[in-house]
Here is the input.
Amino acid sequence: YQMEALQTAAHEQWLQLNGSIQRWAAVARQVEAAVAPAAKQNPKAMGILKSASESVRQAKDPQATIEATRGLNTALSGVMALGLSDPQVKSDAKFEALRERLRTMQKRIEQNRERYNESLRNYDLFLGEFPNYIWAKVAGFRPDHGFFPELEWGS
Here is the structure.
């Protein structure tokens, strides 16, 4: 019973984290319109942002989401740098509001990431204890070492 409860808790924390990431990716897509005047300098960066955002949206499991989130974070950093280098974009209140919204969402992602990793750690530790690892093997429970690493936010 406790194995299942810990596994369920980790899954629920993943759903919270993934929801935060998906909302962040949706806001990242809004950056395209806000940075449009500066995007003329580097349309390739905008294409990379679109592609990376779509990768996050389509990710089907935690590992794919982690990789896609890294890619979107990198792409978003580049596009935000374009915006910050353009005086018209930089002085736009909508752009600044988006930047603040992204920062707030990134903090929320970090909080959810910590909760997810903690629940995963509890699950894995429980499965590794005697006699739990015997019952876990019989019942088909497997450790999940898919911890979500800390990100260096660039926006």
Remarks:
- The chain has a mean pLDDT of 91.
